[in-house]
User: Which sequence fits this backbone?
């Protein structure tokens, strides 16, 4: 009687790699969901295949870890330069390099020690340098470590600007105090949306002008810094440059990016930023707004800014587009605040370019 045959697995036979069964298009879809440039850098070291696919990712998110002083070519990094200042715009005009702290330091392709590094081997990496490793970026988000405009504790200042080759529109939401307990509404007055006389005498209007100029300088500085990235990535369709504090956001869509490439930038003579054109501003004010979530906003102010002579501003379609931009500029309770302020009386102001 013959013994039963036994079947044993061959220990020398390698198990199939499940990732090899996935088509490149599906792997790219997964990598696009990652977005974060740190994670993509690590994925590039996994295998030769990943090393070839990561540069083809369409959606990229770059988080800036810190800002360090540096001497270098302003075209090779995000830079700001000016003598040491003494006022509210101080940190806007220092010589800086926004850096990503060692996310790819020592990381090489699968070719081993002799292989070419996928990303620059530097102690610090500028976004421009890191993004050179991506050849098909369509949607780019860059996050700075903090907002550009210093404010006192409890003060609210948020802005969102849309740019082409120059400013197209900007909306600023501010408040002298965010009350997180609620229930401290100021006495209501039948003002029909008018500003109180004290607004002009106690420095209220002057403060709003400072907020406006500060936000426009921050936006125009960020805009100027993007020129190298936009030049080197003709595939870009959308670009957002925000900060971790949620203070300011600069956004550019397909039309804005095309217009940016077609026209020459007008740089400001005093610093490395784009010149702010002459603008018309609509200012709306409420002494107090009660917001959802138990929040209250004192001295609530909304400033809507458009370049002077913008022909679209007077037509119905232009107004609808502007209203949509304002209502979608902020999230959560601050979107509610912007919509509530849009119903208030409008005060018109004019500002020369600078």
Assistant:
């Amino acid at each position: 009687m013959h013994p039963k045959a036994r079947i044993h697995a061959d220990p020398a036979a390698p198990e199939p790699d499940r990732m090899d069964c996935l088509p490149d298009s599906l792997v790219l879809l997964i990598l696009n969901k990652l977005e974060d440039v740190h994670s993509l850098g690590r994925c590039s070291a996994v295998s030769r295949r990943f090393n070839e696919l990561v540069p083809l990712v369409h959606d990229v998110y770059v988080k800036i870890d810190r800002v360090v002083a540096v001497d270098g070519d302003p075209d090779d990094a995000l830079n700001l330069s000016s003598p040491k200042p003494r006022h509210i715009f101080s940190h806007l005009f220092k010589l800086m390099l926004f850096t990503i702290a060692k996310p790819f330091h020592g990381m090489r392709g699968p070719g081993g020690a002799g292989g070419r590094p996928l990303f620059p081997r530097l102690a610090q990496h500028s976004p421009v340098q890191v993004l050179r490793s991506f050849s098909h970026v369509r949607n780019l988000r860059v996050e700075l470590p903090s907002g550009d405009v210093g404010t006192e504790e409890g003060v609210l200042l948020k802005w969102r600007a849309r740019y082409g080759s120059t400013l197209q529109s900007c909306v600023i939401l501010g408040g002298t105090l965010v009350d997180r307990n609620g229930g401290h509404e100021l006495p209501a007055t039948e003002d029909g949306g008018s500003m109180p006389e004290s607004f002009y005498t106690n420095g209220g209007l002057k403060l709003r002008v400072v907020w406006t100029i500060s936000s426009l300088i921050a936006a125009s500085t960020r805009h100027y810094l993007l020129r190298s990235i936009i030049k080197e990535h003709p595939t870009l369709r959308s670009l957002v440059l925000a900060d971790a504090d949620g203070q300011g956001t600069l956004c550019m869509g397909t039309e804005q990016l095309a217009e940016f490439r077609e026209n020459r930038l007008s740089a400001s003579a005093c610093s490395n930023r784009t010149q702010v054109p002459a603008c018309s501003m609509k200012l709306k004010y409420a002494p107090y707004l009660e917001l959802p979530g138990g929040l209250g906003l004192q001295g609530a102010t909304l400033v809507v800014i458009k370049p002077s002579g913008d022909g679209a501003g007077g037509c119905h379609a232009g107004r609808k587009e502007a209203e949509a931009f304002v209502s979608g500029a902020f999230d959560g309770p601050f979107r509610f605040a912007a919509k509530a302020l849009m119903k208030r009386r409008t005060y018109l102001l004019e500002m020369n370019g600078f």
